[in-house]
Amino acid sequence: MDTYGKVKDSRSALEKLLDIIPGWGGYQERQTRRKADQVLRQTLAEKLADQRRKMDVAQQDLISHGRVDLVDDVGVAVTQLQTFIDRVRTAAYGYGGLLSADRVKEDDLDAVYEFDTALVDYADRIEGAIDRARAGLETEDLKSLILMIRDLAREANTVFDERKAVLSGNASTGI
């Protein structure tokens, strides 16, 4: 079951009963989607923060192995990754409340949730690249692995821009 399903199933009996009030059910549905999005992004941010810590260790390992020439490249990758983490952690939830003028349509909430789910793939790909880089400190391919991490983090930030466009109603493409 996905995060949305888990959050929806965790609603109390009272919350389910309130769904019979006209207009309340739609409000609750949007709140549930918002909560699922929040839980997903918190989980993603924690996973990415773990990867960020691995990058810090890798940077220290590079220095101890005499690969000072790559420290700047790792620093750029770390900056890109940290930017992505910060954006995921602090992004708008996609719904401003029952009486808010800043409402987001339910279809857009679905699209935002899909974007956030797709971002998990970036976290997995970044994790794999970091693990390969840490395992290959002595290899010739190390620089290309570091650049791959940087490029994946940049790409993830670009995809995250599309999420923002969905929330503002200016989305031009899909995921």
Structure notes:
The chain has 175 residues and is mostly helical. It has a single domain (40-168), classed as Transcription Elongation Factor S-II, Chain A (Up-down Bundle). The protein is built from six helices and no strands. The model is unreliable at 95-102 (pLDDT under 50).
List the helices and strands and how they pair.
Layout: H1 3-9, H2 13-17, H3 24-64, H4 71-90, H5 106-135, H6 142-168
Known CATH architecture: Up-down Bundle
Measured distance between first and last alpha carbons: 21 Å
| CATH class category name | Mainly Alpha
Question: How would you classify the helix and strand content by structural class?
Answer: mainly alpha
Low-confidence spans: 95-102
Radius of gyration: 20 Å
Mean pLDDT across the residues is 77
Q: Helix segment count?
A: 6
Number of E-type strands:
0
Helices and strands, in order, run as HHHHHH
CATH topology: Transcription Elongation Factor S-II, Chain A
What does the largest sheet look like?
A: none
| Count of the separate structural domains | 1
What share of the residues does DSSP label as strand, in percent?
Answer: under 5%
Helical content (DSSP H or I, runs of 4+): over 70%
Shape: elongated
Essential attributes:
175 residues, mainly alpha, Transcription Elongation Factor S-II, Chain A, 74% helix, elongated
